[in-house]
Amino acid sequence: MKMSFKEDGFQLEKLGHDVIDDLKETVSRDFVRVLRNYGYSGNIIKKSIRGYGDDLQDAIHKSIWKKSNRMLGSKDVKALMGGQFYAVLSSVVGDFRVTDEEGIGYGNIYWRIVRPGRIEDVGPIHRDEWFWDLNPTRKEECQGYNRIKCWIPLQSEKNKNLLMVERGSHKREDLVYRAAFRDGINKPIFDLDINSVDMQMLSMEYGDAVFFHDRLLHCGSFNRGNLARVSIELTLLV
Ligand SMILES: O=C(O)CCC(=O)C(=O)O
Ligand SMILES: [Fe+2]
Prior knowledge:
By secondary structure, the protein is of the alpha+beta class. The chain has one domain (10-237): Jelly Rolls, CATH 2.60.120. 28% of the residues lie in helices and 23% in strands. It binds 2-oxoglutaric acid and fe (ii) ion (FE2). Fe (ii) ion binds next to loops.
């Protein structure tokens, strides 16, 4: 493996604006496509991800933005994997393949949207490893590989809504979780006193990506920014 996470368990890299512009464009297009499919038109479409906030009722927001509607399609994934995106990522980690945990037949690249001021949009504390361990059939494709997560902000504000991590937590042996069956899969629930972890917000600029260890403890952050936080993520097998 080209990347060794050493003490921190994560590594920040500059991918460049062009690559991120392209990703953001792809996500914006998809965002609009999904909303149109649900019959929306007008302002919500015009504003796209930049203006999205309190446009939909909570229950509708939640049901429209389920994971299957936040996954890039095969054409987009193919284009990314055959272009500059694959080139820059592989310059960081070496040759890689993207996991297909949802079993859709191609690499799973999906985005998230966290509305400003909404605690219910914030992803919980976890290690990605826990998801794999709780869903062993999904894990089979990982045999013989190391997993690295890549997380990229597409619309974010510094110190306000970036990914939270506990530095060095990939080495901890005291972390525990329990399982809950939700949205069709087993999900881990962090089961240690919240005061026993020290989550810190990453400092990232537009154009950056974070690569992190499968065992690094991380979570989303409450969005203190003005715009929705939009990010994209994928698991690399190296
Ligand atoms: O974007 C988030 O809030 C959480 C991301 C995450 O859990 C991941 O990238 O593995
Ligand atoms: Fe995660």
